[in-house]
Design a protein that fits this description.
By secondary structure, the protein is mostly helical. It has 21 helices and no strands. Bound molecules: phenylalanine.
Amino acid sequence: MEMSKRGQWGSNFGFLMASIGSAIGLGNLWAFPYKMGKTGGFAFLIVYLILVVLVGSVLMLGEFALGRKTGKGVGAYAALSRKYSFVGYMAVISPFLILSFYSVLGGMVLRYCLGFLVQLFGVDGFSGQGSDFFSWLLYDGSSMILFFAIFMVCTMVVVMGGIKGGIEKFSKTVMPALGVILVIIIVFVALQPGAIEGYKFMFVPDMSLFSTPESFFNVLKTASGQVFFSLSLAMGINITFGSYLDKQKSLQRNATIVPLSDTLFALLAGMMILPACAAFDVDYAQGPGLLFASMQKVFLDGMGGFTGNLMGFLFYFLVFIAAITSSIALLEVCTASVVDRQLDKGKEPNRKKIALVFAVLIFLIGIPVALDALGSGDAVVKAPYELLGIAKDSAGFAMWNDCWLDFYDMISEGILMPLGALCMSIILGWLLPNLVKDECEESGHTFKGAGFLKVCFRFIIPVVMVIVLYTQITSFFNL
Ligand code: PHE
């Protein structure tokens, strides 16, 4: 009975669409292609794939198993033992912080999407700013707040609809659309002269990066951080989604399909974005600069005309789907944590109200992110480095004090997430070593990979997590 109050997936396909939707996000679009090109090309890809198998899919399987076994979201840790409950707390603070800035970015995506849409009807969609729109938008507080709010409301409405009627239904509709749009743009871009340089940038292997231990370590740390963020690990997402899955479904199969799809999407995203920049002579960048400034230039100045507006609209619509399916997962983690708590106390949870309260709180803490012009200086809200009177780091490093987004990111992605995953691998590897295997066998199949899982949880993952933690801390604090 409790199960039906929490909600359940209607089908494995629905669960997959929601999980893949959470994994595919801005990280795949604005970080993976550039990082791969800069950090060894095809050689980077090999390291990345090995890490997906040894770390990403194993952690994901562990999270699915934890959720389904306990029937809880982040409360799963407390359900195992009170002494593990702190890991659950870490796993709920991260989505809370990440959602605040993710939705600001999602709002910007929505604004670009709308801009190209109205341009299709002959109206100037970029307020006369043309391809300088990015720098203009960052300082236009009212647009930033308005679109941030709209994005947040869209996310909230889906989460209020519940698991089957909200998240599953939405993901099943939009994720196939995302696939179709992706293919259309890739084919279109491939036909443009000059596109080949983009594929070269991304794929040509640079073996010199493997010649010294330092350069290999550099590849390893970049790839580990990317696997970790891209698969939305240590955020309570896979635990929460796993808890709505019934015992007949195969956890191993799902924990293989999701990382595979995410990696395939990241590669295809690169084959869409980098060749487009190459064909239209736009510099490669990463982060918001790539997604907003560079890509807008491709469509507006490069392609131009009706084609540019149509492709621009399709592109930003795709990015919007990628972003909102991730933000839905983040809000669901927060909402489920309270739903579970109330059920534990014998209360009748009101999902709609809980989602609303979280959406409002997250909106409030996101306001500085929306109003500090991503740390460009002299905005309505001062960035942390301005408040503290620290000189801005000239290397263009994403330091923790660069802007509010980086500050929230430092706490979540920089510290809490790798630490959470480290704790989880210790719990599942050393303290409760049979949990994952037993839960996988619930579906009636014998579990063949127990030895492999043990080695990963006990040794490989902790080492990789220490590397990620070290890398994040040194880069955020510029050590
Ligand atoms: N996995 C998402 C991406 O690649 C980002 C994300 C991280 C979403 C953590 C939710 C939680 O962009």
